[in-house]
Amino acid sequence: MKASAKKVIHPLDAIYDEHSRVLILGSFPSVISRQNKMYYANKTNRFWAVMEALFNVEITDHALFCHQHHIAMWDVIHSCTIEGSSDSSIKNVKTNDIAGLVHKSNIQLIVTTGKKAAVLYNQYIHLDIPHISLPSTSAANAKMRLEQLVNEYQKIKGVL
Q1: Does an H or E element contain 60, and which?
Q2: Options 3.90.79.10, 1.10.760.10, 3.40.470.10, 2.30.30.60; which CATH number does 5-158 get?
Q3: Which of 41, 115, 140, 151 has its CA 20 to 30 A from that of 85?
Q4: How distant, in Å, are the alpha carbons of 110, 144, 150 from that of 139?
Q5: Which residue in 35, 52, 36 sits closest to 137, CA to CA?
Q6: What is the pTM of this model?
Q7: What is the pLDDT tens value at each position of the chain, 160 positions in all?
């Protein structure tokens, strides 16, 4: 294990309520998201820009937006060993209680954002709910333009 790798516990609460219909799962919050206590807080991450384009709204309150549009947000991982924000460095995974959240809501579709979240979801979580894997909105996935991401994320609107 490299010296910069450390065990980190997920610091963010899930965003959901009993009316949530789509659960969007990332792998684990980035350093910037952990510091800002907000999902997808890195300004280079296009997640919120995709949501704004998809729903044709300006998002000023992330949690309120999620509640208004029946979207739940969380991450697959509860704790892990990670180097900075690097998904490829993730080890020693303990998962969040995704089944418990689903039980307390009306989730009809689970969406994972990015390859690592999809791999972890398929490895650790076994629910009888449709799951789709969507591309990462991270700047690391620069090959996809915003318009392409919005087109891919249209898939969630069928459930909403």
Answers
A1: none
A2: 3.40.470.10
A3: 151
A4: 23, 9, 15
A5: 52
A6: 0.93
A7: 444 889 999 999 999 999 999 999 999 999 999 999 999 999 999 999 999 999 999 999 999 999 999 999 999 999 999 998 888 899 999 999 999 999 999 999 999 999 999 999 999 999 999 999 999 998 878 889 999 999 999 999 988 8
